[in-house]
Design goal:
Blueprint (H helix, E strand, L loop, with lengths): L2 H20 L12 H13 L10 H14 L18 H27 L2 H12 L2 H7 L5 H19 L3 H19 L6 H38 L1 H6 L6 H4 L23 H19 L1 H6 L5 H13 L25 E8 L20 E7 L3 H29 L10 H17 L15 H19 L4 H26 L2 E2 L1 H7 L7
Antiparallel strand pairs: 1-2, 2-3
Helix pairs in contact: 1-4, 1-5, 2-3, 3-4, 4-5, 4-6, 4-7, 5-17, 6-18, 7-8, 7-9, 8-12, 9-16, 15-16, 15-17, 15-18, 16-17, 17-18
Length: 515
């Protein structure tokens, strides 16, 4: 793919993302789902109204900034309401989230490119991310989860840029990585898992390096002993230069066609990690709290964290008795229990859009308006399969080497695709597995931090198929892409809250657990 077509592709993905997020943004003149908290909190900062927040305040700052800017722009003020505590247009408290969410596919594409320097991989990753439902829904309302994701992803992108540079330029990008990771945690605590993923891939790189060094040293001493013990055997066998006959093999694959910044992870020492990805994120997180603590002086910095922890511990267990849409972590990957953010019915499509109050009786409601926080089903399902494929690839490589050479070995240089697999699997696990021990009621939107690595995984798989010499694999890549795009269009009415007939709604709710 040429640079020209790459740029056209990236711009097209951004325009698609932007258009979907801004189209009809003010249609529901009410507070949708957790806008009852976050839109109000954002407005509270503008009206200097103290309040308790069960999460770190960064996303509410962003929403508040958006409200202030939107109130000074002569656009989108056709409808107003006073539900935030002030007379505001829905456009004012939603537009900044829509703009921020529009950039997430670009950041995902940037990470894909930086991992591999493959433009096709980057375009596909950005396109798939733009074609996901839950990211579209979360971006169209004054909610907080897109800020966790975009700051966490920016942290990873800046880290990859740092690995791709040296000296002062490396330090420059590491500082920005620390700021981004701190901002992700400053949105919600689970933003910490993005940072933990960075640490885990760094630790994995060092472990691979140390194991390889250990095997090399063992091979050196074994070879020296053999030389001293019997020169004639060595000459007869062709010499100990053939390491495969002397001891532990250090098989190295052929040089990869391109490099990956991940290969430079061992250039970061413990000081780099603790300062740039430890002290700086902690400092940024602390600074983020200052405006809120100046507004609400009920609790100090330590006390407010104690209150937040107490709040979450008292939310109750993961069952429908606590909330009808509670969904434990193992229900997320296969999208077993998505949730409705908004559901109203009307007698006809010509009636004004419903705002508040219970839905009409089933017999009277001929039109359904549903905003469903659900992913693109086939994107998620194919993505989980791709993650499992990458896990299998990582496990099979040392097994194949063992069977081939009859001894344990570690490659001197991992291939680019092995690094990508390691990076995606580790970060996916880092953002999903901490929820295993969480017993409070959680929801499918908590999976957003992990599922972006699913998008990268299926994009990698499709890119590999499309670049294959085999026609069957190229056909498979095209088919997967086509199915994902068609699925996105098919479920778009429940992402955008478009009017549906009861039959049209049922056709999109494939399982009872989706309703």
């Amino acid at each position: 793919m040429t640079k020209k077509w790459f740029r056209i592709g990236i711009v097209s993905v951004f325009i698609l993302s932007l258009a979907l997020r801004f189209w009809g943004l003010e249609r529901f003149n009410t507070l949708v789902f957790d806008e009852v908290y976050f839109a109000k909190f954002g407005n509270n900062y503008l009206t200097h109204t103290p309040f308790f927040n069960a999460h770190p305040p960064l996303s509410q700052y962003m929403i508040g900034i958006g409200i202030w800017i939107g109130s000074h722009i002569p656009l989108g003020h056709d409808t107003v309401n006073g539900l935030t505590g002030s007379l505001r247009s829905p456009w004012t408290y939603r537009w900044f989230n829509a703009l921020t969410g529009s950039f997430i596919p670009l950041v995902v594409a940037a990470i894909a490119y930086q991992l591999s320097y493959r433009r096709s991989f980057a375009i596909i990753a950005g396109l798939f991310t733009a074609c996901d439902g839950i990211f579209l829904v979360e971006s169209r309302y004054a909610l907080s989860n897109i800020y966790i994701v975009i700051f966490g992803l920016l942290g990873h992108w800046f880290l990859l840029l740092a690995l791709d540079n040296q000296n002062r330029r490396r330090s420059f990008w590491l500082v920005f990585a620390g700021i981004a990771f701190g901002s992700s945690v400053g949105t919600k605590w689970n933003g910490l898992w993005f940072l933990s993923g960075a640490y885990l891939i760094w630790i994995a790189a060092w472990l691979i390096h140390l194991i390889h060094s250990f095997l090399n040293s063992k091979l050196f001493f074994t070879s020296s002993s053999l030389k001293e013990a019997g020169g004639r055997e060595s000459r007869g066998a062709g010499g100990v230069g053939e390491a495969g006959e002397a001891g532990v093999s250090t098989y190295s694959p052929s040089s990869p066609s391109s490099q990956s910044p991940l290969q430079n992870l061992t250039q970061l020492n413990i000081f780099h990690m603790l300062f740039y990805l430890g002290i700086i994120p902690a400092l940024i997180y602390s600074i983020i709290w200052i405006p809120h603590l100046q507004l609400d002086k009920t609790y100090g910095f330590i006390a407010v964290h104690q209150q937040i922890l107490k709040f979450h511990l008292q939310l109750g267990g993961n069952n429908p008795n606590v909330h009808p849409y509670c969904a434990a972590w193992y229900k997320w990957p296969l999208m077993i229990r998505p949730m409705a953010y908004y559901y109203q019915t009307a007698a006809s499509i010509t009636e004004p859009l419903p705002v508040m109050g219970p839905p009409l009786p089933a017999s009277a409601g001929q039109v359904i308006y549903d905003v469903h926080a659900m992913g693109n089903p086939f994107l998620w399902w194919f993505g989980v399969a791709a993650i499992l494929f990458l896990v299998g690839m990582l496990v099979s490589q040392p097994v194949i080497l063992w069977l081939k050479e009859k001894r344990f070995s570690v490659p001197a240089t991992l291939s680019v695709d092995t690094w990508i697999a390691l990076y995606l699997v580790i970060n996916y696990a880092a953002n999903l597995l901490p929820w295993v021990k969480v017993t409070r009621c959680v929801f499918i939107y908590h999976y957003m931090c992990a599922v972006v690595f699913v998008f990268l995984a299926i994009a990698w798989f499709v890119d590999q198929c499309l670049r294959s010499y085999y026609q069957q694999l190229r056909a498979l890549g095209v088919s997967i892409t086509f199915i994902i795009l068609v699925a996105f269009i098919y479920w778009m009415p429940v992402y955008l809250g478009l009017p549906l007939s009861p039959n049209g709604y049922k056709l999109r709710m494939w399982f009872n657990s989706w309703i």
